[in-house]
Design goal:
This protein is an alpha+beta fold and 81 residues long. It is 28% helix and 23% strand.
């Protein structure tokens, strides 16, 4: 699946997107796999309360299932104005 990173998440990881092979069942499982990769991922996902996630362009929670998902995006909360 494609994993996309936006704003400071992208800055900490150093890439905007990557193809990830995963056995993760939920978004949180994917986050745990990514955290275990390298320090830069651990830093980006240190505080998931500061993140939002979308699966196949639909906002969701970290408990969302990944079965059949093609894309997961991580980004900070948006502010309006």
């Amino acid at each position: 699946m494609d994993v996309l990173y936006f704003a400071w998440v992208r800055e900490r990881i150093g890439i905007p997107r990557e193809a990830v092979e995963t056995q993760a069942v939920t978004v949180m499982d994917l986050v745990d796999e990514l955290r275990a990769r390298e320090d830069r991922y651990a830093a980006a996902f240190a505080d998931i309360t500061a993140l939002r996630v979308a699966v196949d362009q639909q906002l969701t929670g970290f408990d969302a299932p990944l079965s059949g998902a093609r894309e997961v995006a991580f980004f900070p909360p948006m502010t309006g104005g």
